[in-house]
Structures are given as structure tokens and as C-alpha cells.
Amino acid sequence: MSHEHHHHHKISEKTVTYLLISFIINMLLSIVEIIGGIIAGSISLIGDALHNTSDAFSILIAVVAFKIGHRKADGRYTYGFRRAEVIGGFVNLILLFIAGIYLAIEGVGKLISPQPVDGWIIIWVSAVALTIDAATAKLSHHGSEHNTNLRMVFLHNLADAMGSLGVIVSGICAVCLGINRVDGVVALLISAYMIYQSVISFPKVVAILMNAAPEGTDLEQIKKELKKISGVKDIHHLHVWCISEDAVSAECHIVADDTEIIGKVTKLLDRKFGIGHCNIQIEKHCNDCGHCDL
């Protein structure tokens, strides 16, 4: 695990404004797609709207997380509010999964009993959606190479654009070929993507909520590096966990004679392992703390 894996660039106020505008536009688009889907009888268009709504909330979560993350820690929330982003992401994943299941059921129903759809409404509404999704992806691309949250927003918007393209294809098939089953097929493809995204993202979010160490963390390697510091006799009670996606904390007990060694330990943990917040306890002997069973 290296330093660059856990330190991300903060989102600028200008980018936050762009994201907020994108959220509003995407929510309006979702409403238009749902209405268009109901009128046209297209489950794939409604499915694209559900996916778009989920991603719009992902944008909102990014904005809210930015705002909440700037709040200072207080007497009760001593670690601050950075985990709000993780909690929001957890809720969003559950909603995404439920929407995917609903869409899969409706898609199967469309395949079993295909109903006539208004292809032209599907094409025109999806064309508008494709334009907006592409524009939103471009807005969120700025800074996405440095910020994981922005990168996820960008990838989701890119996927939305591809989904809208698929719905356009189903509309063309209905208009030109009279094939209505394509609508159900596209709905199933969108639902599969929604379920896949929620399932693969779920373990990472749960790991943070369970105070797990960042993926790739090697506690033995950390101990080995710390023991190289002159004056460090032994290390125990070492714990590493994520406060949020990009904030890693650690605590450990170090057997040493000199308390000034704490500065060297914190610098090494930050520089080499990207651990920005440390709680170091110095002991004269290994059994001084009485908590070695942790």
C-alpha cells in the first residue's frame, strides 16, 4: 500500500456547482423519461430513467459529502463527518439494487408478453437523454482522474449515455422492423448492469463501515518498517481502518524509551503508507497497557 492510494484531491467549488446543475438536469430528464416510457409503453425507457435517477443521486451524494466533509469535528462526532459519504453510498447501492431487480422482472414480462411500443417517442426522448448524459459526463470528467468520487460519477454518466444509446436501438427496431421484444432485452441489459454495479461496490462500502483496513494493507509490513526506526523495540496493538474512502487512521502501542520517537513514526506512516491520522502510545515494557489481546 502506498501513499498515493489514499490521498485524493478535493473537489473545487466550481466543480461542485457543475455537479449540482447536473443533478437538477438529470432529475428533470428522469421525469421526462418516465412519462415518455409510460406513454410509449417502453420498460427500457423507464429502466433508463431509474438508472439515471440512481446516478443523479450519486451526484447529489458527492455534493453533500463535499459540503458535510468541510464541517469540523465536534464533541460528539470526534472524527468529523467524512463518513457521511459512505453512508449515502450504502443507501444508494441498496436503492440501485432494488431498482435493478424491479427492472429485471418487468423486462422478463416484456419478453414473455411483448406489447406494442411507440418507437418514435422512445427515439426522441432517448436522444435527448443521450445528449444530456454525454454533457454531464464531460462536466464530471474534470478532476475525475484525481478524485475517486468524481471518477465514479463520470463512469456512471458514461454508462447512462450507453444505456440511452441502447434504448434508441430498441426504438429503431420497433419503428423499422416492428420488433417489440428488443425493448425487454435492453431493459434486462440495463438491469444487469445496475445489479452488477451494486453487488461489486457493496463489499467496499461495508468494509469501511466495519472499520476494515484499506484493501492491500499489510500489517506485518507496517510493523517491519516501524521496527527499522532507531529506538523502536517492539510494536503491538496495531489497528488500521478507514474513516472514509480517502482518510486512513491507525493506532498502535510502541515499546520505546523516548517519546520523541512518535514524530518519526507518524511521518513514516503518512509518507509510506498514506495513513494521515495516528494514535501512538509509548510504553516502557510490552505488558504496560494491559490490552495486548486486542
In short, what is this structure?
This protein has two domains: 207 residues, Cation efflux protein transmembrane domain (Alpha-lytic protease prodomain-like), CATH 1.20.1510; 65 residues, Cation efflux protein, cytoplasmic domain (Alpha-Beta Plaits, 2-Layer Sandwich).
Structure description:
The protein is mainly alpha-helical and about 290 residues long. The protein folds into two domains: about 5-210, Alpha-lytic protease prodomain-like (Up-down Bundle), CATH 1.20.1510.10; about 220-285, Alpha-Beta Plaits (2-Layer Sandwich). About 65% of the residues lie in helices and about 10% in strands. The chain is built from eight helices and three strands. The radius of gyration is 25 Å and the shape is elongated.
Helix content: 55-70%
**N- to C-terminal distance:** 23 Å
Radius of gyration over C-alpha positions, nearest whole angstrom? 25 Å
And the CATH topology of the largest domain? Alpha-lytic protease prodomain-like
Number of strands: 3
Instruction: Give the helices and strands as they follow along the chain.
Output: HHHHHHHEEHE
> Per the principal axes of the C-alpha atoms, what is the gross shape?
elongated
Strand content: 5-15%
Unreliable residue stretches: 1-9
State the strand order across the main sheet.
Answer: 1-2-3
Number of alpha- plus pi-helical segments: 8
Q: What's the level 1 CATH class of the largest domain?
A: Mainly Alpha
What is the average of the pLDDT values?
Answer: 80
Task: Give the CATH superfamily of the largest domain.
Answer: Cation efflux protein transmembrane domain
Would you identify the CATH architecture of the largest domain?
Up-down Bundle
Q: Describe the oligomeric state of these chains in a short phrase.
A: single chain
